[in-house]
Amino acid sequence: MTDILIVEDDKELSVLLTDFLRSEGYTVSAVESGERAVQLFERYGARLVVLDINLPDMNGFAVCSKLRENADTPILIVSARTDKEDKLNGLDLGADDYIEKPYDIDILLAKIKGIFKRRYQRSMLSASGVTLNLADRTAEIDGRPVELAAKEFDLLALLIENQGKALKKEYLFSCIWGSDSDSELQTLHVHINRLRQKLGDDPKNARRLLTVWGVGYKFV
Amino acid sequence: MTDILIVEDDKELSVLLTDFLRSEGYTVSAVESGERAVQLFERYGARLVVLDINLPDMNGFAVCSKLRENADTPILIVSARTDKEDKLNGLDLGADDYIEKPYDIDILLAKIKGIFKRRYQRSMLSASGVTLNLADRTAEIDGRPVELAAKEFDLLALLIENQGKALKKEYLFSCIWGSDSDSELQTLHVHINRLRQKLGDDPKNARRLLTVWGVGYKFV
DNA sequence: GCAGGTGGTGATCATTTTATGACCGATATT
DNA sequence: AATATCGGTCATAAAATGATCACCACCTGC
User: In this predicted model, what pLDDT tens digit does every residue of B26-83 receive, in sequence order?
Assistant: First the structure.
């Protein structure tokens, strides 16, 4: 998964921004249309999206809500449109910020840094007696160390990161596995099952890793 | 713990903002100095801080870093100082946003709402004692948790979203089921029926989910 | 008050979704 | 090379849902 997905049709600006952010150590993908943005995001995901509103195909707002359907990845809208209505619209759609063009690239960087720090630089994730140490990828359950396989760890981390929130199976799958084949959703079930065993959770009476019927799973 | 702590020495502005946010359902405390802000925060905490930079005593930046020492409560800096340096400074200190004065109060609200939603998963729909938490797809009726099946949840959410408004059966059906077959409208009746049972609503004397004869249903 | 249409409701049952044990190839470990 | 672990697929079981049916109740216009 790349750190930052840039959706910007101004090629020059896009390249500039991409290079700049790369020089700051982020991995960056850039696309020039809404269509491609959604495509790329659904396939590979991203940790943060910088989204222009005026795009050749879809409207940026449409992209925003499309992305928001599954993920709550931070979205920074960047636009030359300065109307109040546009801003409210963007924020209502779940954008984390609405930055007017032209913007100062250092300010943008500061905001991006802030979001990454708040959002991703946690070294520990914990909830309901489960603690994940993201640095050394160890896990503790009710104070006891537990061995988690890589996929299990990632899956649990994702769930705990969004604790309390019901996550769609498709979303979970695309986050961990990246693409979406059909029958392979089954795989997710298997992994959930294995996780539950290690968590000591009985699905019929799960205390932590709950099934949300018709939707997916949530960690509480 | 109050939802929002306002740190602002302009009394008029402070009162305006306080009233406005209260009318939006937040609990609000307001202070006029950095000293008091830190004091109050350490004593009672807050879920979000709106922080002015120009304060009579301490500098707002100092307040910001002071608050950050212990808590990672979201901080929105609001200031008449528009220098790039100030903004960078604020963001580096861990502020979630730096909003220039004069600001539009609706934009501020939108940002606050966004933070509450992202951070505290407060994205609720509620009416007449029924509360749906869209994030984790749980429901409460008169304070009691209730299990709703996927279709039931979606249907109720749609009705509450448009509360007070009579929705045509065909509309409801196409929203939830997507297509529109004829005889299957009956299905909607069945689901409404189940919802009413869970809501404790007797159709003859419904208090919440009303039948609008010849049209459809409405939630009041 | 009657007829026809509209809405309500319990029961049934096929379908969809989820759970889980077994298996197997790939990869890492000793 | 032997062994263990991981991670994926398959087959099958179990569970929940939700569509439909059948029938009843109610409304409304005549």
Answer: 789 999 999 999 999 999 999 999 999 999 999 999 999 999 988 889 999 999 999 9
A84 touches strand D (CB under 7 A): no
Most B CBs within 10 Å, among A68, A87, A160, to test the B interface? A87
**One domain for residues A101 and A193:** no
Interface mutation target, options B88, B137, B151, chain A, most CBs of A under 10 Å:
B137
3-class DSSP state for residue B28?
A: strand
Which chain B residues are Cβ-neighbours of A214 within 8 angstroms? 149-151
Say whether both A92 and A155 belong to one domain: no
Residue B112 host element (H or E): helix B105-120
Residue reference for tokens 């004869």: B213
Contact residues, chain A, for B72 at CB < 8 Å? 118
Q: Work out whether the CA dihedral A144, A150, A156, A160 comes out positive or negative.
A: positive
Q: What is the block-wise mean pLDDT of chain A (220 residues), using blocks of 10 residues?
A: 94 97 96 95 91 94 90 93 96 96 96 92 82 90 90 94 90 83 82 93 86 94
Phi, psi (rounded to 5 degrees) for A139: -135, 145
CB contacts of A110 in chain B (<8 Å) are: 87-88, 91-92
Is there a single domain that holds both residue A180 and residue A165? Answer: yes
- Cβ burial of B79 (10 Å; 0-12, 13-18, 19+) is buried
Name the domain boundary from B75, B98, B120. B120
Q: Give the residue numbers spanning the domain of A67.
A: 2-120
pTM for the predicted model, two decimal places: 0.70
Taking an 8 Å cut-off on Cβ atoms, the answer to whether A114 and B95 are in contact is yes
Give the residues across from B28 on adjacent strands.
Answer: B4
